[in-house]
Design a protein that fits this description.
Number of helices: 10
Number of domains: 2
Distance between the termini: 11 Å
Strand content: 15-25%
Number of strands: 12
Oligomer: single chain
């Protein structure tokens, strides 16, 4: 894998996802009558751009690590507050003078666009390439493993894991991979009856294409076979929605475990790690890039909903305070909060980049 491949794939993937996210903000803002001054892919100095009939400046900027939509009257690109007093006539187009519900709709539209985009990408894959599908029936229980000790048997059909319904063996694999060291309840169908088995997945180390090692959960069961099942459009959307929901919930579980210290944060990736994974997906093929883009789109939408000032979730948190108090937080309080949010985001990026630099192949 060359550096050029990784960089090009990373820029393509990130540019598409940022465009989708910001387009969500843009479309709902225009729908709610907000004037949009700037739509930028990237930060910093403009490389090139154009101005449309409505006065919006569409541009590509030098630092390709995000993007923004700047609304009329914004103090800056973070939409932290109104820049100055504006005339009564201009208030009609100002984001900060719109009703609370309209502002919240504009903010949540960005993450929502990422989730919708992920569903469409997964649906497209499931309808064309097919969805990986293996019946959740255990063909073999390996001796001297967690599964053998917990009482799993060949022929058991996995029905549920910790409250999550299992329809494919792949569902079981995904749950076990992130469940290392955590006690889990498995409901299996055996001789026509549901039996609950309790097991704590052990660990094993896997090495990816770039030589990077991952410590993942391991149960010790094998499936009977594997196939790609093409779905019709309705089924593809249904399963794509379920896949997106599954990724969302498991990401939240993993983040919670990292915060509580029950799961190491070594797998947290920054721009360098994402670039490497983009290059690996590009080497495999178009379908791998699309699947990776869908996964990243879910994570981008979810991260932006975290209640951290500077992110969309931080704005929604301020709006919640405004709804309760009946008035917005003081400008100085918002300013300090956004500074804190910026510091937290920069610290997270530094930590993730440090993880990237410590991995082989990055």
């Amino acid at each position: 894998m060359t550096i050029v491949t990784s960089v090009v794939a990373f820029l393509v993937v990130l540019t598409v996802l940022v465009f989708v996210h910001e387009m969500g903000h843009y479309l709902v803002a225009r729908w709610r009558g907000v004037r949009v001054e700037t739509f930028s892919i990237g930060f910093g100095k403009e490389i090139f751009g154009w101005t449309d009939r409505s006065g919006t400046r569409w541009k590509i900027s030098w630092i390709p690590l995000g993007g923004y939509v700047k609304f009329f009257g914004d103090m800056g690109v973070s939409s932290a507050g109104p820049a100055q007093e504006i005339s009564p006539a201009e208030r009609e187009f100002s984001f900060h003078h719109k009703p609370l519900g309209s502002r919240a709709a504009v903010v949540v539209a960005g993450p929502a666009a990422n989730f919708i985009f992920a569903i469409l990408l997964f649906a497209g894959l499931f309808a064309t390439v097919g969805q990986p599908f293996t019946t959740p029936v255990i063909a073999e229980v390996q001796p001297d493993t967690v599964a053998a000790q917990a009482g799993f048997r060949g022929g058991d059909r996995i029905v549920e894991v910790d409250g999550f319904a299992v329809q494919r063996f792949e569902d079981l694999m995904q749950l076990v991979l992130v469940g290392a060291g955590r006690q889990m309840d498995f409901v299996v169908l055996r001789d026509g009856q549901n039996v609950t088995l309790r097991a704590t997945p052990g660990t094993r180390t896997l090495t990816d294409r770039s030589g990077r090692e991952h410590v993942v959960g391991y149960l010790g069961v094998r499936s009977a076979g594997f196939e790609q099942v093409r779905r019709n459009p309705a089924e593809a959307l249904w399963y794509a929605g379920k896949q997106t929901w599954f990724i969302t919930t498991q990401t939240l579980v993993s983040v919670g475990r990292m915060i509580t210290g029950t799961m190491p944060a070594d797998d947290l990736s920054g721009p360098l790690g994402i670039a490497r994974m983009s290059g690996e997906a590009a080497q495999i093929g178009v379908s791998a890039v699309i699947e990776f883009m869908a996964l990243l789109s879910v994570n981008l939408g979810l991260i932006n909903l975290f209640p951290v000032p500077l992110l969309d979730g931080g704005h929604l948190l301020f709006y919640a305070f405004e709804a309760v108090r009946g008035r917005p937080l003081a400008p100085r309080a918002q300013e300090y909060a956004f500074r804190l949010g910026l510091a937290l985001v920069l610290m997270l990026m530094f930590f993730a980049t440090w993880n990237d630099l410590g991995r082989p192949g990055t």
